[in-house]
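Pilot study result, target chain (550 residues):
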Amino acid sequence: MSRAVPVPAGLSEQDDGSPGVDAFARLLEVRSEHAARHSDRVARLALAVAGRLGLGADREPVLRAAARLHDVGMIGVPDRILLKDRPLDQDEWAVLRCHPVWGAEALAGMPGLEETATVVRFHHERWDGRGYPDGLAGEAIPLESRIIGACDAYCSMTAERPYRGALSPFKARTLVRGAAGQHFDPAVAEALLAAVAAAAESGEEAAPAPAAPRPAPRAAATLPPALPDAIASVRLPALEESRQRLLRALEEPHPAVARVVDLVETDPGLTAAVLGAAGDAGADVPGAIEALGMPELARVTARTATFDVFEHLRASALAPERFRLHAVATRRAVRRLGRVLDEPDVDGLVAAALLHDVGKLVLARLHAGYPPDIVRDASTPEERLRAERRELGLDHAVAGAALLRRWGLPRQLTELVAHHHDEGHGRGAELVRLADMLAHYATGEGVDPTALLAVARRLGMSAESLRGAMFDLNESAAAEGPRRSQPSPLSDREREALRGLAEGKVYKEIATDLGVSTSTVRSHLSSAYAKLEVADRAQAVLLAAERGWL
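Predicted structure:
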């Protein structure tokens, strides 16, 4: 049985007045009710400790919000790690230790939560500098983070965990006292022990800690009771026609890799299913297909849920086919921009382009009237994002990243989705953002020209180059690459070796077919990669197939 966190009598969390904090706190319940109760207890204890330390009243709202949300990054930790009933191994710890950064990044994008994000990021730093994620030490760690870190540790020690029982309050106090000056700020540890002792004297030691009251969201953003199940219940089906075409391709004796990649990337549902099945072994669709192999890919494809286009021809902005068409248009724009800007790794950006709006499915669960009741008259992507933040307290980029992490998709992909509307979060996120704008433009939707030009300039594109890309998006041949008539730079042997890769053969099989050694095959392929200016087999096969050279 979980033990109570002792706090001074009568203490309850004050209303933080922020729908954003409330929405994120409710999202934490998606992981488990235990996580939400734990955060409430940490918040109550942190306020008691802060009172003993004389923390200014102007800092209490930040402390309160950060304490409630300190573990919001846990939304991204897979269940196999979070619920493991044995100690974590080194790789699992590496994933778990990402949660302060994930939580801070999610909060930093929300207006008014920037300071909260900073406190959340550093709540696992240690007084002696041996904490994470940045190894800060002493007073370089924000005081609020030091308070939350100590309270989090005490509350965790006195609660049941899948891999151990709860420690007694006496044992937990002994451990806190012993770690003062190393793990914990000595002053914070002293205040924590005093707060716990005062609670014990008041008789609260054995009483369950009441959940902190939550402020009701504004009427326009009223959230349904089913919110805790929102992320867990979201599914991304594939178009039935997409799945059937892929299955037919996989039934061929030697499926062409480039063709298979292209078919997966025609559908965000197939893309999510394939990347989820490959896990850490595939950072993009070509890599995931290589990791799975064709037989397993066929099994994954057959299990993927589908929708039929004729059942979803209504005008809803979240109708599955409209969702898919925008995703595919963004994918096409990313590939076009990748060629214009000579980007070395477009495949990872393609996956992000296909899944960048998946968080809208979560928001639709949070509010039955999303998107029309929320975005209302907003006509550009930026205006719609601001409306989401204002009315719901979070946006689809944050929700999408949380969903992809829950599905176990690659970290790089979730980061691109999380920041595809933000400035200053890397070239990849800016490329996806620009591709999203161009996809809206290509279908006649509103785009902010100032924002469009600003993103393009940050990527090194001139206005003239951007105009050319916008025009080419409406020319399917130009958007998808050069025509077959473009001369191939490959020799006959290089083309034959590359064709063998496209058929799924290994070097030894290609060598047998060509009557040469495996080292000669490697030499042919290395030369082909250099001529095509690509880094690996997946990119080489895809490019050569697109240009009709295989």
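One observation from the pilot: The chain has 31 helices and two strands. A full batch analysis is planned for the follow-on phase.
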